[in-house]
Amino acid sequence: MTAHGVSLVTLDIAGTSVDEGGAVYVALRDTVEKHLGEPIPDDRFDRWKGTGKRQAIEGLLRESGVPAEKNVLDAVESDFTAMLLAAYRKTPPTALPGVHDAFGALRQRGIKIVLQTGYSRQIAEPLLEQVGWEIGRDIDGVITSDQVRMSRPSPYLIFRAMEIAGVQSVDEVLVGGDTPNDLRAGTNAGARYVVGVLTGAHDAATLRPEPHTHILESAAKIPELLG
User: Fold this and answer.
1) Helix 53-63 and helix 70-90: axis angle, to 10°?
2) How would you classify the pairing of strands 8-11 and 94-95?
3) Would residue 11 be called left, alpha or beta, if left means φ above 0 and alpha means ψ between -120 and 50 degrees?
4) Which of 217, 165, 207, 164 is nearest to 186 (CA)?
5) Residue 2: per-residue pLDDT
6) How far is CA 100 from CA 8, 103, 221, 227, in A?
7) Residues of the signal sequence (predicted)?
8) Would you give per-residue pLDDT tens digits along the chain (227 residues)?
9) Helix/strand/coil (H, E, C) string of the chain?
C-alpha cells in the first residue's frame, strides 16, 4: 500500500484521461437518432453518458419506445463504431494536459494505473494507440465495457481493474471520471476515493450532487491529492 493507502488509480478514458473532442457523444446521438427518425431530448440522452455504449444504445431505444432486439442493437452499434472511428481518424484523440505526467508520477510511487471505459475494445485499442499509451510502459491495463456483464453505474469495470492490478481491497482504490455514472460506479464499488473531474462531459454543478469524495479540475491533479 502506498500514499494515502492507494494502490490503484482507475480512470475513465474519454473526457477524463483523453481529449477526444466529445466525438463519442456526437456519434452516439447521431446514430441513435438516425435509427429513431427523431431527436432525443437532452435530459434523456445525458442520463446515459458514461455508461457502456451498447448499454446506452439499448437504453435510449427502449426509452424512446423502440424494441431493442439483438439485430437492431448490433446494427446501431456497428454504425456508431464506424462513425466514431472515422472521427478519430480525422481528428486523433490526445492525452489531456498533464495526465501523462500524472500517470508517470503515480507509477513511480508504485500505484497501478488501469483505465476503464464504456467503449468496446474495438474502439479503445486504436484510441490508445493514437494517444501513444502502451500497457506496461504508460499504464498497467485497460478494461472495456464488452468485458463485463454490466457497465456503469454498476461497479464491475472497477472490480475487473482491481483484478488486473492485483488489488484485493476497495479501500486501496481511487476511481475517477467525468460523468455522474462514473461517480455512481465508484461509489457502488465502495472505492476509498471517488473523484469527479471537470475536463469532460459535465460541469461542477452537475457532478457535485452525485456521490463523491473530491471534485478536481483535472485528473492531472490526482498526484497532488494523494500527497
Assistant:
1) 120
2) unpaired
3) beta
4) 207
5) 55
6) 16, 5, 11, 18
7) none
8) 555 799 999 999 999 999 999 999 999 999 999 999 999 999 999 999 999 999 999 999 999 998 889 999 999 999 999 999 999 999 999 999 999 999 999 999 999 999 999 999 999 999 999 999 999 999 999 999 999 999 999 999 999 999 999 999 999 999 999 999 999 999 999 999 999 999 998 999 999 999 999 999 999 999 999 98
9) CCHHHCCEEEECCECCCEECCCHHHHHHHHHHHHHHCCCCCHHHHHCCCCCCHHHHHHHHHHHCCCCCCHHHHHHHHHHHHHHHHHHHHHCCCEECCCHHHHHHHHHHCCCEEEEEECCCHHHHHHHHHHHCCCECCCECEEEEHHHCCCCCCCCHHHHHHHHHHCCCCHHHEEEEECCHHHHHHHHHHCCCEEEEECCCCCCHHHHCCCCCCEEECCHHHHHHHHC
In this structure, the chain runs to a length of 227
Strand partners, 142: 115
Instruction: Report which residue type is found at 1.
Output: M
Question: C-alpha distances in angstroms, 135 versus 37, 77, 113, 142, 158?
Answer: 41, 26, 10, 8, 17
Query: What separation in angstroms does the CA of 223 have from each of 104, 157, 162, 175?
Result: 10, 22, 19, 13
How far is 68 from 183, CA to CA, in rounded Å? 27
